[in-house]
Design a protein that fits this description.
The complex is a heterodimer. Chain A has three helices and no strands. By secondary structure, chain A is mainly alpha-helical. The model of chain A has no long low-confidence stretch (mean pLDDT 85). Chain B has a domain of 68 residues. The relative contact order of chain B is 0.13. Chain B is flat and about 70 Å long. Classes of the chains: A mainly alpha, B mainly alpha. At the A-B interface, helix 3 of A face helix 9 and helix 10 of B.
């Protein structure tokens, strides 16, 4: 099978998405902490949720960078 | 009145269902559909000879969706604002004022105004929780505008015909589809040239018309035979938030506002966050503090980048996801993904607005606090 440039670009895009592993673990930890806090103190659920969503958004941003790199590789080219 | 409303809603629902069926499902059962050739940059739909500072002015498809979003936001917000002003005026002139049904004027009634008030109240409470009541009333209009405009723009995904119907033209690159698979159905042949009656049946299978009218600059070089030419659809409307120009503009507006609120709270002392010259007098430790100031300055610019890329990345990926799902299976299966996109659209709008508030709150915390603690 011939290995073309686009095959390498696809591979590179796939590899770029490895960057989502970290944020995935991070969001999991965040949610875990938030759930435990809500379990201990159900009255603070609203405040915890707000802060959790904010922290998740910041963590997710890093995954989004990886996604943008992958998308740029595929759609814009190098 | 209520009966009328039900009839209107049913008609709207049926009409949207029919349009959705036409734009998403019919082509997939053999009438010819093409997976849209996705581009990161917004596509041009009308080329003009106008120039601004030497840059050509083109009508991009995200500009069309910007105008739609703008009109929608005005149409949704202005009536609610008018009701709010009228209620407030009535309440001020007579705190015991009652409406036609004998209820207190400030008591909410079912309807659009009540929904809008609930959304405004949710966002206002969020703002007040984070930056306190001193600045909440001043920062709220900006924050809510960012939230509401982005929300409507994100949900433009679900406007029938968005991203799917457009001009069929010759592809400038090698990607694309044979013309039969795109224009198999007359519905997909909707084309500005046909709307304006300039003819040009799309039978002509070369790129000359497209080059002449500026849809592409030149025919792809490595195509030798006419039947190797590939065609793409440039949609008339493309979700606004999948345009980096929009997300970057919004991010810059938000971060400039953050600087302004920092200045208004702290005055010139705000600058010492970034250029901490007094710290230099304190020897080696001060030097580190001075360097940290520079890192914070770079951080302000990185915040613009992360703001813009977060919104763009989420929505662009969402668009690609919807394309892929609709292309794979026409019926039922894409529904959960549409639901997911509804959630993501709302979440990203809230997150953008919320981060703006949080950054304002962070900017308003003076660097001086640390210094005072150290001196005592």
């Amino acid at each position: 099978m011939e290995i073309t440039d686009s095959a390498f670009i696809a591979l590179a895009a796939g590899l770029a998405m490895l960057g989502t592993i970290g944020p995935g673990i991070g969001i999991g930890l965040l949610a875990q902490g938030a759930m435990q806090s809500i379990g201990r103190n159900p009255e603070a659920a609203g405040l915890i949720q707000t802060n959790m969503i904010l922290a998740i958004a910041l963590t997710e941003a890093i995954a989004i960078y990886a996604l943008v790199v992958a998308l740029v590789l595929i759609f814009v080219g190098v | 009145m209520n009966n009328n409303r039900t009839v209107v809603m049913v008609v709207v629902l049926i009409a949207s269902a029919a349009l959705c069926a036409l734009s998403f499902t019919l082509p997939s059962i053999g009438w010819g559909v093409a997976f849209p050739v996705t581009e990161v940059a917004p596509e041009t739909i009308v080329y003009t000879d106008l120039k601004f500072l030497g840059f050509p002015l083109y009508v991009k498809n995200t500009l069309v969706s910007f105008i739609i979003t703008f009109v929608l936001v005005l149409a949704l917000a202005l009536p609610a604002g008018a009701v709010a002003r009228r209620k407030l005026a009535e309440y001020k002139s007579n705190p015991k004022a009652v409406d036609a049904d004998g209820n207190d004027v400030m008591v909410p009634k079912a309807g659009w105004y009540n929904t809008f008030e609930a959304v405004v109240e949710f966002m206002f409470n969020l703002t007040e929780d984070i930056i306190g009541s001193k600045w909440a009333a001043s920062a709220f209009p900006l924050v809510f505008t960012i939230f509401f405009f982005t929300l409507v723009a994100n949900w433009l995904h679900f406007l029938p015909l968005t991203d799917t119907v457009g001009i069929v033209h010759c592809s400038a690159r090698k990607e694309g589809y044979p013309v039969e698979s795109i224009v198999g159905d007359s519905f997909y042949r909707l084309d500005v040239r046909q709307i304006f009656g300039r003819g040009a049946a799309y039978g002509a299978r070369d790129c000359e018309y497209d080059i002449e009218h500026g849809y592409i600059e030149e025919a792809p070089e490595d195509v030798e035979r006419v039947d190797e030419l590939r065609y793409v659809i440039t949609p008339f409307v493309r979700t606004l938030t999948t345009d980096l120009n929009y997300t970057f503009s919004l991010a810059i507006i938000a971060m400039v506002a953050v600087q302004i609120y920092g200045f208004r709270e702290l005055g010139p002392a705000y600058l010492s966050k970034f250029f901490n010259f007094p710290a230099l007098a304190r020897g080696p430790i001060g030097l580190i503090e001075f360097a940290v100031g520079f890192i914070e300055l770079i951080g302000e610019f990185l915040k613009v980048l992360s703001f813009a890329l977060r919104l763009f990345g989420n929505l662009f990926a969402g668009t690609v996801l919807l394309f892929a799902m609709v292309f794979l299976v026409a019926f039922a299966v894409p529904l959960p993904f549409f639901f997911l996109e509804v959630l993501i659209g709302a979440l990203q709008a809230v997150v953008f607005a919320m981060l703006t508030i949080v950054f304002i709150a962070v900017a308003q915390v003076g660097h001086g606090h640390h210094d005072e603690d150290e001196h005592h």
